Amino acid sequence: MTEKLAFIGLGVMGYPMAGHLARAGHHVTVYNRSAEKAGKWVNDHSGELAPTPAEAAANADVVFACVGNDDDLRQVTIHEGGAFHGMKAGGVFVDHTTASANVARELDAAARERGFAFLDAPVSGGQAGAENGKLTIMLGGEQTAYDRIKPLIDCYARQARLLGPAGYGQMTKMVNQICIAGLVQGLSEALHFCKQAGLDGRAVVDVISKGAAQSWQMENRYETMLDGHFDHGFAVNWMRKDLAIALEEGRRNGAHLPVTALVDQFYAEVQSMGGGRWDTSSLIARLEATRK
Prior knowledge:
Layout: E1 4-8, H1 14-23, E2 27-31, H2 35-44, E3 48-49, H3 53-57, E4 62-65, H4 70-77, E5 92-95, H5 101-114, E6 117-120, E7 123-124, H6 126-132, E8 135-140, H7 143-153, E9 157-164, H8 168-197, H9 201-208, H10 216-227, H11 236-253, H12 258-272, H13 283-291
Parallel strand pairs: 1-2, 1-4, 2-3, 4-5, 5-6, 8-9
Antiparallel strand pairs: 7-8
């Protein structure tokens, strides 16, 4: 069934995600901080451009957002001109931003007061996953709202699951990033060891990737890591933002995250090397620089 939708935030993730919704036959109204980017999206897909988030949300049954951080999210929702001021009762707001669990709970409460539902729904899979419609989505909120929007997010997701009430999607994304941080550091050290030992890194990975050491990071990043190419993938700047959120939540709930904190500092060193926009696999560059 065709739905009236709105999508707020047309970055490297939001642009293709909104496109999948349009290609599925839904009427999509978009808002982006850069009107030029929104205009390009409208030219690429059938849909409309709105001058504010509130106007984008005004006639929509479901509103999606994918912006940068907590402050950006508040700006496009509860601040003046935000989507929450335009949404109609009975609608659903789906937030794909990777943000804090606190802001998810805050927006859930604000949505309830206004008579519509809120779902925090951070994603994993990167730009390629968004473009190919193969994202993994972790959600927090009410079951009825999740059931309502599940056929829509299936347009760009290969896996989606409701994990609990508001904030649980964001906390699950924190677990995801904690795992990735440790994996990438371990892989970086392993490939650095290969070089130092005179081993053929590609041959080594070909063997060990068939056993217990296998991971997505190994399969998809080892070649570019060995070659020192990092101008792709998920940026270090964004990873540090995500790890800061996870470390803050860990302090709040009493979780001990020593490896995560250490890897976060390693990423700070990569930033100081000028690698803020490099892929997260650039941790190996720090080891190479230390060796020199």
